[in-house]
TrEMBL record, chains A, B:
PROSITE patterns: HTH_TETR_1, HTH_TETR_2. The lineage of its organism: Bacteria, Bacillati, Actinomycetota, Actinomycetes, Kitasatosporales. Transmembrane segments: none annotated. This is TetR family transcriptional regulator. Pfam families: TetR_C_46, TetR_N. Residues 4-64 form the HTH tetR-type domain.
Amino acid sequence: MGVEERRQQLIGVALDLFSRRSPDEVSIDEIASAAGISRPLVYHYFPGKLSLYEAALKRASEDLAGRFAEPQEGPLGARLLRVMRRYFDFVEGHGPGFSALMRGGPAVGSSTTNALIDSVRQSAYEQILSHLGVSEAPARMELLVRSWISLAESTALIWLDGRRIPRAELELQLVHDFAALAAVSAAYDTEMAALLNRMVKDEPADGPFAELVGRLMSLAP
Amino acid sequence: MGVEERRQQLIGVALDLFSRRSPDEVSIDEIASAAGISRPLVYHYFPGKLSLYEAALKRASEDLAGRFAEPQEGPLGARLLRVMRRYFDFVEGHGPGFSALMRGGPAVGSSTTNALIDSVRQSAYEQILSHLGVSEAPARMELLVRSWISLAESTALIWLDGRRIPRAELELQLVHDFAALAAVSAAYDTEMAALLNRMVKDEPADGPFAELVGRLMSLAP
């Protein structure tokens, strides 16, 4: 194998192990053994476990950011729901590693890992703005989108901890949560109200937004 | 000064400095100088900056957790709004240190600091459940309360970054966000619907929940 090919293979093996257990618990010996090479050879390619972890996390970050890409066609609610499905696929495929990373901790919290997490959040933020047709977000829209992204993270983390609610329900719930938080924001601000009107005007009668409005209306006294 | 008195004084001085700037930027020399003692004497009480930082964070955590305590009297919306005001008082008083801590980073991410953050989140969680009259939370209620707590954290962090929205509006918005997310959850689950009905039945017509419902109704087509 060439140097780059071997590096890529090691990153893949390491990502698999770091995904399935907390990175703290994964040793270089284990990675070497899973890759079928010696421990010194691992160190030939990566100076230590942290640099291998960071390389694996970089690959995972690119994978996740790629899943946010969605054609700008059709109703917004259905687009967001498809992204949520791919997001939960990712979360399910990397459960223990995702939990350990997002909950923070000495082994996983470096400035590089934090920068990678922020870059994924930024990708999600920019994708959502582009679907909303906004290039420069006013303060309330930035707050809505960024705080909803953190809601999606915490929802995924809570789901991983026991999986007490079916993930398909949470994927849909997060779409509804976005609409509900947008509605609160719209209640404060005419610009946000205009955005919400634009969001819902092309929603089909059987789409997630219309479903939410119907459900909310039925709860009102 | 006695040993414990001196320790408490140092913790107070350090907390003040760690609150006003990112903890990375605060040196032991500065803490010694602000406390009016020598650098070696600081080390006599605390083995290093991390232990002093952790002691300061412990005091801040207890302060914050104490602000969640609210008499179980009167409408729920007004209670939550009072807690949000005290929460933003805390966030405003410890801005740069709060941001640095919650955004993570090498200097502030230790297992002790993470445990302190989790203990504050747990206090908030238990306080909210007790106000809702729930001792054992079903899965959807746990998700609602915990994910709303993370929404309150991210809202405060985004506010600190530029303060583009008046904090009084965000305090009220977070109360509305809670009601809106509860309404989404209620749309999925009869137990949550019963909770929401209990939440709103004692709300006054001029309280935050009623205001939100009115605003949402006016947005509906």
